[in-house]
Structure formats: structure tokens, C-alpha cells
Amino acid sequence: VTATGELMSCGVDTHYRTVLGFSTNPPNLRLPYPVAIPSLRQLRVRTVAAGAVHSMCVTEDGAVFSWGCSKVGALGHGAVERQVEPRLIEALRGVVVTTVATSPSHFGWGFDLSHSLAVSDGGTVYSWGAGKDSRLGHGSSEHQLVPKRIAAFQRVRIISVSAGAARAHST
Hints:
The structure is a single chain. By secondary structure, the protein is mostly beta strands. It has no helices and 12 strands. A 4-stranded antiparallel β-sheet has the order 3-4-5-6, with no helix packed on it. A hairpin with a 4-residue loop joins strand 4 (54-59) and strand 5 (64-70).
């Protein structure tokens, strides 16, 4: 993210994972140098998180966008999907998010354990995606296709989160 809020992307995207945020995505897109993501040029991005198969960013007004792929709902759009360009997470509309985290959990398209976290300006934590081993903090192993508030933090103000391969951390 540049000082002016422009989100840059570079690297390689293999097997149509769509993690780089570009609508023209051949099976092996390579961006050897940072390039601004065109669909976000009208917005000022504050922070970004890049996972194994999906990415998210937060704009200066606290809106969250996600893109990439997930068989378990880690994009937060209510469906199992591939999202080529950044798309607003409607379930978080009206919530001012300050930070997000994406997991590195992906072991091939057949075994997707990716999940996501977001923290609001009031310290509320939301999680979604793969629920295996209770990694979402909702007391079950069910997948969540849209962001869901973690009830265990109802009386605690969280300021930071991290999404690991099989767990999530908060402070």
C-alpha cells in the first residue's frame, strides 16, 4: 500500500487462484514488478492481508474487499467461489474495520483450510471460512461463508488478529 492509498500487486498466480486482483487472469499470470490493482484505483486502501489463496484489503473508510478463491467461504461473500477482482464484503457493510488477516492454510484445491479475520474500530472480531478444528472461535468446526462475530470476545476489546495455518490469535 502506497502512502497515497494505492494497492500494488506483484508475483505469480498459478492455476487460476486469482490472488493478484486482476480481471484478465491467465492460468499463470506473472507480475514481475508492482502494479496498481485497477479496480481499487478510486479507493484509498489503508491495509492489506495476503493469504495462500485469497487476499483482503481495508479502505480508509473501513470497508473490506476480498478476492482469490476458497472452497470454504474464506472470501466472505456467502458462497464458495473464485473472485478475480476485489469485491466488497457486503456482510461487513456499515462496520468500520481497522485490520484483517488471511490464513496461509491451503493444501491444494481439494483441501482448503483457508479462513479470514477482521477487527472493527470498536474491537469486535469477525471470522469466516474453514471451521475445521474450531479455528474460527465459534465453538464448532462448521465453515462460515460470511463474517460472523466471535461471541467469546463480547466483553473484550481486540486490537489485532493473526490467522495461522490451524489457528487464530488476537490481542
